[in-house]
């Protein structure tokens, strides 16, 4: 799957992943109205609204980008109907040829971590048969529990030729509270980065590992260091746009080959129509606004990479 | 909810939480057969099997213990039908008067963390109405992303008078890879423990905070230190039984008041019938074996506390 991701990045010339994090305040009123008319103001109604909203965006951008990243929390908050909308979104994106990165940030130990890996990347055994549960292509993983938490994911990645992105240095303001603490003179995130390189060493695609990392766009200097600490890890970079990361900050996350990073934007794309810059599209054409925002982001990144 | 937990611990004289982590290999053959006959060897069949299995155990132990802790990964691996079984289990346990600790180990940032908090502890807004998604009483939270990840849970805990247990020092062998790293001469888990105390300081129940901690039974010396670092945090202690923790190891997790800790056992109770010690019950009476195992565990803990 890492090979496919790289191929699609080259084909689209867009190292971009669109974060499908549908908050209700992003969903156009006409979509909410239709969903509530059909299902009432219920969890099912909310799930229908976010699903229709997602579908519009996916239809508008699927040819421009290699991947999408649905944030499961935004679905999980609507209980079972929300999880059904998550699964529909994953399936639909795959039908459209998109690679799906499930932003699940799961992490546990042993058989429990394996259950998450099985449920999201692999197949679960039921009697003599086996089934995919949610069936994303990649997922994000939290490393706080150490190798016991990550290795079960690596095992399933090898079986399924899928991948993970391990949280190393997250984009949020308080990420330093624990991640930046100095251990023998070096920040903890570097130690986690070294582990990412080790976990990924024996599950390599053609040029990058199945085991990638998450490093926030808001920390470009740390990105520069981590790029060297884990040269074969693809870096998923959140925090572009709404969180303050800029194109020029992103260059350090890429290797000399122009690869090695994929930049996420969520609300900057999916709620583009709510920005002044794209307001002329209007609510009805929210998906066209998203398409325009993807094109602008692609240009921003291309210029930044050309200028380095 | 922390007050209710303490009241129920006193009433039952059992600082015990039963981990409802239903692996298919624990489920008696006759239950699997009935479920597969009705639903086939499908995800629905698996979900029915684990639900019936859970129900039997809950019916056998609900009067003995204050709380249960379903591990969501064991349900999530079966996709949507698994999540439905999780929700049925949560609801049924609450009907039986049990406090439900959702072992979800979620953690993200800002609005995303709030979505998890809303989905599992709080109410989500849908138009003019609001709904509970999964509606546990407590959940476990991963602290790797810092205060940005934990504060949204604390906010919802205050609104709902519910609680969280933050991972501090986990029970697994490799938990030390990051958690034990020395920061200014002290292990990282102590720093996390201090944060737990800070996060919980302004959401106190009568004697303990809404914000608790997870510290593994397999690390009693660390438990002794952490008990002092966060005196008002209730400690959820996994790792008893199957993972090697013993009654005598547990005393350090309790305060002088005999409170402050609740010990989890999962397979040691739910799969007791598969142990030699309880084999005489037989598969058909698996739930009675679970009841006997709870009684033995209660006795083991009471003796350890009496001997200190």
UniProtKB/TrEMBL annotation, chains A, B:
GO terms for biological process: 'de novo' pyrimidine nucleobase biosynthetic process; 'de novo' UMP biosynthetic process. InterPro entries: Aldolase_TIM, OMPdecase_type-2, OMPdeCOase_dom, RibuloseP-bd_barrel. Pathway: Pyrimidine metabolism; UMP biosynthesis via de novo pathway; UMP from orotate: step 2/2. GO terms for molecular function: orotidine-5'-phosphate decarboxylase activity. SUPFAM superfamilies: Ribulose-phoshate binding barrel. The active site is at residue 105. Transmembrane segments: none annotated. It is an enzyme of class 4 (lyase). Its EC number is 4.1.1.23. Keywords: Decarboxylase, Lyase, Pyrimidine biosynthesis. Belongs to the OMP decarboxylase family. Type 2 subfamily. PANTHER family: OROTIDINE 5'-PHOSPHATE DECARBOXYLASE. NCBIfam families: pyrF_sub2 (TIGR02127). HAMAP family: OMPdecase_type2. This is Orotidine 5'-phosphate decarboxylase. The gene is pyrF.
């Amino acid at each position: 799957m890492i090979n496919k991701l790289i191929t699609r990045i080259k084909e689209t010339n867009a190292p971009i992943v669109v974060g499908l994090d549908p908050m209700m305040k992003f969903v156009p009123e006409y979509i909410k109205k239709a969903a509530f008319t059909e299902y009432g103001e219920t969890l099912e109604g909310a799930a229908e609204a976010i699903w229709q909203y997602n579908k519009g965006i996916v239809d508008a951008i699927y040819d421009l980008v290699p991947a999408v990243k649905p944030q499961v929390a935004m679905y999980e908050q609507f209980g079972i109907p929300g999880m059904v909308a998550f699964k529909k979104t994953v399936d639909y994106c795959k039908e459209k040829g998109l690679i799906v990165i499930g932003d699940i940030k799961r992490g546990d130990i042993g058989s429990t971590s394996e259950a998450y890996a099985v449920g999201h990347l692999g197949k679960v055994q039921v009697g003599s048969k086996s089934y995919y549960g949610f069936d994303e292509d990649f997922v994000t993983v939290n490393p706080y529990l150490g190798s016991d938490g990550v290795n079960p994911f690596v095992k399933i990645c090898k079986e399924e030729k899928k991948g993970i992105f391990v949280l190393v240095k997250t984009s949020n303001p308080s990420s330093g509270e624990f991640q930046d603490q100095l251990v023998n003179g070096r920040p903890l995130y570097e130690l986690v980065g070294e582990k990412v390189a080790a976990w990924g060493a024996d599950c390599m695609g053609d040029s990058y590992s199945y085991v990638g990392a998450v490093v926030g766009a808001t920390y470009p200097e740390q990105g520069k260091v981590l790029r060297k600490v884990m040269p074969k890890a693809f870096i998923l970079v959140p925090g572009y746009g709404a969180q303050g990361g800029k194109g020029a900050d992103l260059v350090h996350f890429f290797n000399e080959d122009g690869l090695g990073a994929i930049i996420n934007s969520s609300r900057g794309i999916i709620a583009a129509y709510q920005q002044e810059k794209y307001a002329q599209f209007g609510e009805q054409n929210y998906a066209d606004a998203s398409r325009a925002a993807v094109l602008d982001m692609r240009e921003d990144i291309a210029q930044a990479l050309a200028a380095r």
